[in-house]
Design goal:
Layout lengths: L9 H8 L3 H5 L7 H16 L5 H10 L6 H11 L35 E10 L4 E9 L5 E7 L5 H14 L4 E4 L3 H4 L1 H9 L3 E4 L9 H13 L9 H17 L11 H7 L3 H5 L1
Parallel strand pairs: 1-4, 4-5
Antiparallel strand pairs: 1-2, 2-3
Helix pairs in contact: 3-5, 4-5
Length: 276
């Protein structure tokens, strides 16, 4: 939004855009080695105990010998994009420009590919630093249709992945996400509306509403990410890409009667879609 190479001074650009000048001049600091280790451990504990908030995580970390306060744990959780998962009252809405949509999947039978897609973002630790992983999953087959890595929690890399999935596989009837700002943004919801896709959003803090994506994150992290120490983003991309090929094509799922996501997805596509 701010063009530092433009002839207009930054102060003038901020005034035109109604932005605080401090926002334009701010440069995020890299996380320290200590914080990176804490973030990795917080991520592991969050996978094991998704209900744990900053206080409980602080106590768990202290029991392991980490001298850290609750506020610092909360700051790191916010930076990672995670929060304790439990039912919270939905007493207020986001900004009027970012409406929250109802959850459409309750008691809905989902047994065929491209009926419902789901998506989410998770934190991926590396040897030095971290990235965020976004994935689009077909609900019925558990097949990962597209994915992207990013070093920032923005909307653009999510939109790119959704556009790729639609281009390659057509469109679902329903697209389900949580209430994260990336998914309530006008850019993201408009993409779905432009493709005549019904928008569904989890209840606030209700991880069970998007449980299959949460299980995907657990599989990726325990079977790939936590076993590696990626040196670079390209190494993370390569490692996760190889794992997802295995996940889609070779990893059997008990809920699919031992089928792989690829086998179930392509075997159960409507004849019209298979011909296309």
């Amino acid at each position: 939004m701010i063009d530092r190479s433009h002839k207009l001074p930054i102060a003038r650009q901020c005034k035109i855009l109604s932005l605080s000048r401090s926002t334009a001049y701010y440069r995020p600091q890299e996380a320290s080695e200590t914080d990176l280790k804490l973030m990795r451990r917080i991520d592991e504990l969050h996978m094991e105990h998704p209900f744990a908030g900053s206080r409980m995580l602080r106590d768990m970390l202290k029991a392991e010998g980490h001298a850290v306060g609750r506020k610092h744990v909360a700051t790191l959780m916010k930076r990672m994009g995670i929060e304790a998962i439990y039912k919270k009252p939905n007493t207020s809405r986001r900004h009027a420009a970012h409406p929250v949509y109802p959850y459409l999947l309750r008691n809905l039978e989902i047994a065929r590919p491209n009926h419902v897609w789901a998506a989410d973002i998770t934190y991926i630790p590396m040897k030095r630093g971290f990235v965020y992983l976004f994935a689009v999953m077909d609900w019925a087959s558990r097949r990962v249709l597209s994915w992207r890595l990013s070093n920032t929690l923005t909307t653009d890399f999510c939109i790119e992945a959704v556009q790729e999935a639609i281009t390659r596989y057509g469109r679902p009837e329903i697209f389900n996400t949580d209430q994260g700002c990336q998914f309530t943004s006008l850019e993201f919801t408009q993409l779905l509306k432009n493709n005549n896709i019904a928008i569904s959003m989890d209840g606030k803090g209700c991880w069970r509403d998007n449980v299959f994506v949460e299980r995907l994150w657990k599989s990726i992290k325990y079977e790939e990410v936590y076993l590696r120490a990626y040196d670079t983003v390209s190494a993370a991309k390569s490692g996760i890409g190889c794992y997802l090929e295995f996940y889609n094509g070779r990893r059997p799922h008990s809920t699919l009667d031992g089928d792989t996501p690829n086998a179930f997805y392509f075997a159960n596509l409507p004849a019209l879609e298979q011909a296309a």
